[in-house]
Design goal:
By secondary structure, this protein is of the alpha/beta class. About 30% of the residues lie in helices and about 10% in strands. A five-stranded parallel beta sheet has the order 2-1-3-4-5, with helices on both faces. It has a four-stranded parallel beta sheet with strand order 6-7-8-9, sandwiched between helices. A four-stranded parallel beta sheet has the order 10-11-12-13, with helices on both faces.
């Protein structure tokens, strides 16, 4: 490692000592000093390629001199200083003796080492003896001449140096005796000339005596004078105190630095030293960054290596471009000669021209203009409200700010950089009053066209305290922290001025600040933080608000300052880059892709955002005679260009930083136009290249625009004080503030797509136009002041919001952006919308998919209800639930950082009320096209009742889905149900009819008026905690826009609402809701089974085992005996009614309340036609069939010939359990034969019968149960002997699975059996819902044992209800397209309904299956391959139970012991 920084500092100070008495060279071993400096250099990476910059032959001209040509490095002059002897740092240095160190010694040593990389033959450096060289001291000049003579003598005597032919690099170090070299203008020029005169004798001597020499004239004045030790030492006797007059600001300092350097450059460029081929002198400046001045309290850390590197880098830059200030704190890379310019730069090879001479020909033309406005009159009476203020009412003008308002350089001639220090206040854009509008375009001169007696404007030149400044109290160099002082001074001036009526006169005050804050933000991030910036502006505005009556305050937004880089970086444009870089280092000194630049841009944006939030909070709208308005024309700045495409420097003062009068004129016109533009529609970018255009006040609305008077029509005003984002982007959706939202999106149907929002009242055809820019949840047209939408509200919190839609068009249009709603879309299409949305968010560059927080609003369901009556099964609540869940699942799975608003849809009753209440205005004839199922049913009809029931079921499904907690498993995602649409209250006109102005011409879609209310209601819902959300929307109400509070700043979720989702209420019963509308029987009793309606069924019956007798359907009091609850049996039970007990007979009772045959209770006497028996196998089915036939024949209530009968047969579980005992007796062939025998009996004995054959479920494995509460292994093995010694994947188990599949395959053919197709009044249909049923899971992912009885083996009442639903739905599905699995999601609305197009129970014939398919039967069984998750219900249950049992090590209760168990 090299020496530490504090060691370097002391090294420099020791180097600045008294001259020695002999030439210093290093003929032998390296000294300690040289070793230290060489070690220091090794810390710098040498990246130059010596071969690229070298040449085989030495250069003949000094103007093509390469580093490799230099043979010898020397120094003349010593700028010396000894630190105080008592400093701790001096005692720590390893150097010994009291000999003073010299800066020249260290610098030339390092320079030699650098050159040695290019040429190994370079000799060791040499320093001439002498005293400190003070250019303005006679004694110093004499000493330099003596040193030069001694140096020449030593070089002549050096045997290793060819004095005549070797190239020499001679560095002349000098300093000034005072700081007068930094005094501007004539004083400065005098000192430079005087300094040159003192150096002439020495330089003349070198020119005369030394051939082939490149002389660096190195001015170390600032290095010496900025040293803290220098201030405590005695000056040279010849030194004079400097009394610089005028400005001592940062601007003055950097301009003086540049001017000082330019003076030397100009002098040397025109001198005799630049006329020779073998000799030249080049000025090499050492100026500090202004950020390191003593004012900052930071002292630079110096060492010879740093000084030498800076000197080397300066030599590598052309004269006129040596603009890089000296920063010892910043580690710089060593610059390399380029292939284009491999030489050391001189005035000649730099093509240097003095800047003033170069630019003098460019003259600035001041352009005036005129205002031709028809109405220039003031209000009839002096207004009392600032919101009714005309331009001509303004009597006083004032301004606060920095040098851009003070007018620095506004009137300067091109190239006259020193004149940039002049403050041309009379030309200032916001308050200058020089000339008149025909010659000088300023805001004051525009206002004087309306009120010639305007007061307060500034004239001429001068500082803020000059007489001509008047109420222009801007101070050059000021930052936001200085504004409160300016504000107080301004208030005092206005109060005390005799020509200003402080209480009565209307005043316009323009405040513009922030450029200096941004320019220094990287040097003190805390001081210049966005929060401090906003706080300081607030303090100034608070003073004006508290003390100034009748005032309109323009707060001009801080400009987008990064565009200045384009001017700085374009080398073809002549600019004093040293001035630019020193004035604004934080903008200009970093690379394009640096993190520092990215930070600056972010801070710039936060300055702008903070300004907006402060003013739009309503803080300054509490009085009728005062307001503050943000004027944003500087928000986005494009660098003006010339016709050649280069940055146009004519818009800038000679320093290329301040505005020229041309820019002041443009800024004035932009401010004027902004003042007249409504809030929300103000221009955020001014095109400086276009001709100045001044608009006139609107004749119908001639007032200056304020936040209050800009709210028009359906716009709104947001008066939220706290609009800040989180300190850092939140990781949790439960800590999400409105300002954290960066992306807004929407999904849904025509309501979200915006159909008809902007349509004129009678333009029915225009309802097809999708006005997406006006859509309540995703529209971004205009601004909040004129269009109330959720995005426009959110943009008040985050102006960089994206994703919103603009204008009109469909979902595929670019302007739709993330509004992917499709007119007419139903829940089924929501998944495709989600996929399109996700793809757009991933691919669009405006969206940072993984980092940006998103609000996605989903509204769906209305279109489903409109078509519900056309296919009640397809649009069932269960299907709606599934489709909505599928879409939300994709969002949950794929979209990070998202809050999803799931909006309840509008009740169909609202649509009916409007439509039917205005038959003369609404298109009644087109009702069936628009929304047939909602608009055509008669009042009090069954159809309307069903519609209302399904609506409630849809809404219940949405609530159930959200409250399941399914979407609250990730910290960065949540779905929140926003219920404001639940109850819409329509405004009623005086004649009692609904107000159609809230609707489009079709009386169905909401108009913009309605959408505005929807936006407010949605926003209010988003801020309301769960459990207290408003579920009513009164369209007549004046809904104010809610605001986040300090204590509740977040968008509300279940967690930050401290809300617990209601647990699923203890289900009192497992009944179902009946929503079918087609429930009438056939007009006459059908003779064909293929035209059999549910209402035609008169008798139900069932065959089977204990699953049909409903063993264990309810808990039993006995510990070892389970009861058969036949009245709850899924296929034949008839206890209670459908609303409390879901069974097949209870469903059929809705169609035919007089149905017969169902079983009730638990007794054999009430078993009805349920002939199933516990433990029964397939071999018992023929006997049960005969028993059933006999019971029907004996029943006096049954008309055996005429009554239609529905018989369900379900058998096979016990056959599988005992298959291994005797495979031949329990083979699939035997199984199918027994079932066929039973069916044959029914076929032969029973007329008019529809027989369901339910496929057996998969029973290959039964294992231990749930959390130790169930242990079915012993019981299962006792009754299922095939499981006793079988293990998973054993040969026995594989064989059992094969038999199981063969059972299913065998019975599946019965639907196609030719024998049962011969009679018109008989059919057999296989119902396959058990084929691929998966295990029902609970919320924790375990087996849901609520579906099973106490033995964890039979079905509970809930399980029987699910089986009944599945069987019923299978019966209504066509053969070949039946559902082969079951959905175990609880819902009371899962029952399908017959439709008008298909009112019959499905048979092979009425399923319209192709004849060849019927003949062939099912050749390939889709269910023949087992599903990994479990092919059947029992298999899945068993697998989960086994897994849980293996993990379990503790049991809460001892397992239930079952001695016997059979199906």
């Amino acid at each position: 490692m090299g020496p530490q920084p504090h060691v370097f500092l002391l090294g420099l100070l020791l180097l600045l000592g008294q001259g020695t008495t002999q030439i210093h060279t290093f003929p032998g071993e390296d000294t300690l000093e040289e070793q230290l400096w060489s070690e220091s250099l090794r810390n710098f990476q040498f990246l130059c390629n010596p071969k690229k910059s070298g040449s085989s032959l030495p250069s003949e001209s000094v103007h093509s001199l390469r580093p490799s040509d230099i043979k010898f490095v020397a120094a003349v002059g010593h700028v010396d200083m000894l630190p105080g002897s008592g400093t701790a740092e001096a005692q720590k240095r390893p150097w010994t003796g009291d000999r003073p160190w010299q800066v020249s010694l260290g610098v030339v040593t390092v320079l030699s080492d650098i050159i040695r990389h290019f040429s190994r033959s370079v000799l060791r450096p040499m320093c001439a003896p002498g005293k400190r060289a003070e250019a303005h001291s006679g004694a110093g000049a004499e000493d330099l001449w003596i040193q030069a003579k001694e140096l020449v003598r030593s070089m002549r005597e050096n045997q290793q140096l060819d004095f005549q032919n070797d190239w020499k690099l001679i560095n002349v170090f000098f300093s000034n005796t005072s700081q007068c070299h930094l005094c501007p203008s004539a004083q400065q020029q005098r000192y430079v000339t005087d300094g040159m005169d003192k150096l002439t004798r020495m330089l003349d001597y070198l020119l005369q005596e030394v051939p082939k020499a490149f002389v660096n004239l190195v001015d170390l004045s600032e290095v010496v004078w900025l040293s803290p030790w220098h201030q405590g030492t005695q000056r040279s006797p010849g030194a004079e105190p400097c009394r610089c007059s005028g400005d001592t600001s940062k601007l003055s300092k950097v301009v003086a630095q540049w001017s000082y350097q330019e003076s030397w450059e100009r002098l040397l460029a025109s001198s005799k030293y630049n006329e020779h081929e073998s000799f030249t002198v080049v000025f090499q400046p050492f100026f500090y960054e202004t950020a390191l001045w003593p004012l900052s309290g930071q002292w630079p850390l110096l060492d010879p290596t740093t000084l030498a590197l800076h000197l080397w880098n300066s030599m590598m830059k052309p004269v006129g471009q040596k603009d890089e200030p000296f920063s010892a704190n910043e580690k710089r890379l060593m610059k390399c000669p380029s292939q284009e310019s491999p030489y050391l730069f001189t005035y000649r090879n730099s093509n240097y021209l003095p800047r003033l001479t170069e630019l003098q020909e460019k003259l600035e033309l001041r352009e005036g203009m005129e205002i031709r406005c028809p109405d220039k009159n003031p209000s009839d009476t002096i207004p009392t409200s600032v919101h009714r203020l005309k331009v001509a009412d303004i009597k006083v003008i004032a301004a606060l700010g920095d040098s851009l308002t003070a007018g620095n350089g506004a009137g300067s001639k091109p190239g006259d950089i020193l004149d940039v220090l002049t403050q041309y206040r009379g030309l200032s854009w916001s308050v200058g009053g020089d000339g008149n509008l025909s010659s000088v375009t300023t805001l004051a001169n525009m206002l004087r066209e309306f009120n010639p007696s305007l007061k307060g404007f500034s004239l001429g030149t001068g500082k803020e305290n000059s007489p001509g400044a008047f109420l222009n109290q801007a101070v050059a160099g000021d930052c936001a922290g200085d504004l409160p002082v300016q504000a107080r001074r301004l208030v005092g001036l206005m109060k005390n001025h005799t020509k200003i009526n402080f209480q009565e006169d209307w005043k316009i005050i323009t405040l513009f600040i922030g450029g200096n804050d941004l320019c220094d933000s990287c040097n003190d991030p805390v001081r210049y933080s966005p929060q401090n910036f906003t706080d300081n502006i607030r303090k100034a505005l608070d003073i004006l608000h508290a003390e100034v009556p009748r005032a309109f305050v323009n707060l001009v937004m801080v400009l987008e300052i990064a565009s200045l880089r384009e001017l700085f970086q374009e080398k073809k444009v002549s600019c004093p880059r040293m001035i630019l870089r020193n004035l604004c280092p934080c903008v200009l000194k970093f690379d394009d892709n640096s993190t520092e630049l990215a930070t600056l841009i972010e801070v710039n944006q936060k300055y702008q955002d903070g300004t907006h939030q402060l003013v739009e909070s309503g803080r300054y709208d509490t009085r009728e005679d005062f307001t503050v308005v943000v004027q944003p024309f500087f928000e986005k700045v494009n660098m003006p260009k010339t016709s050649d495409g280069l940055p146009d420097s004519s818009f800038f003062a000679p320093d290329c930083f301040h505005f020229s009068s041309k820019s002041h004129a443009h800024a004035a016109s932009a401010l004027w136009n902004n003042m007249l533009e409504p809030v929300g529609q103000k221009s955020t970018q001014h095109d400086f290249e276009n001709k100045i255009n001044i608009t006139c006040p609107n004749e119908d609305w001639p007032f200056l625009s304020t936040y209050k008077n800009s709210v028009q029509g359906l716009g709104s005003q947001l008066l939220c004080g706290d609009r800040a984002s989180s300190a850092s982007p939140p990781a949790s959706v439960h800590a999400l503030r409105p300002a954290d939202i960066h992306v807004v999106a929407a999904l849904g149907d025509s309501l979200t797509a915006g159909n008809g929002i902007g349509s004129k009242p009678d333009d029915l055809r225009d309802v097809a136009t999708q006005y997406r820019g006006l859509s309540y949840s995703s529209g971004g047209d205009s601004s909040l002041e004129t269009v109330t939408t959720l995005p426009n509200i959110l943009r008040k919190f985050n102006r960089h919001l994206t994703g919103y839609a603009l204008g009109t068009g469909d979902a595929n249009d670019t302007n739709a952006f993330l509004n992917q709603a499709v007119p007419g879309a139903k829940a089924e299409a929501l998944t495709s919308q989600v996929q399109a949305l996700v793809q757009r968010m991933r691919e669009d560059q405006r969206v940072n998919f993984h980092e940006d927080w998103k609000v996605i609003t989903v509204l769906i369901g209305g279109s489903d209800l409109c078509d519900y009556c056309t296919d009640s099964d397809f649009y069932s609540a269960a299907n709606f639930f599934d489709r909505l869940r599928n879409a939300l699942d994709i969002l949950h799975r794929e979209v990070p950082r998202a809050l999803v608003n799931l909006v309840d849809f509008m009740s169909p009753s609202v649509m009916r009320q409007v439509f039917l209440g205005n038959p003369d205005k609404c298109p009644v004839q087109q009702a069936s096209v628009f929304c047939n199922c909602v608009l055509t049913p008669r009042e009090s009809s069954q159809e309307l009742a069903r519609l209302e029931a399904i609506t409630r079921a849809y809404q219940s499904s949405m609530r159930e889905l959200v409250e399941s907690g399914r979407y609250d498993t990730r910290e960065d995602f949540s779905v929140v149900l926003q219920p404001f649409f639940h109850d819409i209250r329509l405004p009623i006109l005086e004649d009692g009819r609904p107000d159609t102005s809230f609707f489009a011409p079709d009386c169905i879609h909401p108009s913009q008026k309605f959408h505005s209310q929807l936006s407010k209601a949605l926003w209010a819902n988003m801020l309301e905690p769960l459990g207290r959300k408003t579920d009513t929307l009164d369209l007549r109400a004046d809904i104010p826009l809610s605001c986040p509070t300090q204590h509740e700043p977040f968008l509300r979720t279940f967690r930050n609402s401290n809300y617990t989702y209601p647990t699923q209420p203890a289900v009192e019963n497992w009944g179902s809701d009946f929503l079918c509308m087609e429930w009438n029987p056939s007009n006459s009793v059908p003779t064909s089974v293929h035209e059999l309606r549910p209402a035609d069924i008169k008798v139900v019956a069932a065959l089977g085992d204990s699953l049909t007798t409903a063993v264990g359907a309810r808990p039993s009091n006995a510990s070892d005996l389970l009861v058969s609850w036949r009245g709850l049996s899924w296929s034949v039970g008839g206890d209670g009614v459908l609303e409390t007990h879901t069974t097949l007979p209870n469903i059929l009772k809705k169609f035919n309340p007089q149905i017969l045959g169902f079983s009730t209770g638990t007794q054999e006497e009430t078993a009805g036609l349920n002939v199933a028996a516990e433990g029964a196998r397939a071999r018992d089915m023929p006997a049960q069939a005969r028993d059933l036939v006999e019971r029907m024949k004996r029943s006096p209530e049954i008309n055996l010939e005429k009554d239609w009968k529905l018989i369900t047969l379900f058998i096979g579980s016990n056959d599988l359990c005992h298959y291994c005992e005797n495979p031949e007796d329990h083979s699939a062939m035997e199984y199918v034969q027994h079932v066929q025998q039973a069916l044959d009996i029914l076929y032969e004995e029973l007329p008019r019968a529809f027989v369901n054959v339910v496929q057996v479920m998969e029973l290959t494995v039964l294992h231990q149960g749930h959390d130790g509460k169930c242990n079915t292994l012993q019981a299962a093995q006792s009754s299922c002997t095939c499981l006793l010694h079988s293990q998973e994947n054993s040969l026995e188990m594989q064989k059992l699975k094969e038999v199981n599949w063969n059972f299913q395959s065998g019975v599946s053919r019965f639907s196609y059996w030719h024998q049962y197709l011969q009679r018109e009044d008989f059919t057999v249909v296989v119902q396959p819902f058990f084929q691929n049923t998966l295990v029902p899971l609970n919320e924790r992912g375990g087996a849901d044992l609520t579906f099973f009885s106490e033995d964890c083996f039979h079905f509970s009442e809930r399980g029987h209800a699910e089986m009944a639903i599945a069987l019923w739905n299978n019966m209504l599905e066509p053969v070949g397209r039946k559902t082969t699995s079951n959905n175990f999601t609880y819902s009371r609305t899962k029952l399908k309904c017959p439709s008008p197009e298909s009112p019959y129970l499905h048979t092979l014939r009425n399923s319209r299956l192709l004849q060849d398919e019927a003949d062939a039967g099912p050749q390939v069984l889709s269910w023949a391959v087992p599903v990994a998750a479990g092919g059947g219900l029992a298999v899945g249950v068993s697998a989960v139970m086994a897994w849980r049992a293996m993990r379990s090590r503790r049991r809460e209760n001892p397992p239930i012991s079952l001695n016997t168990m059979s199906f």
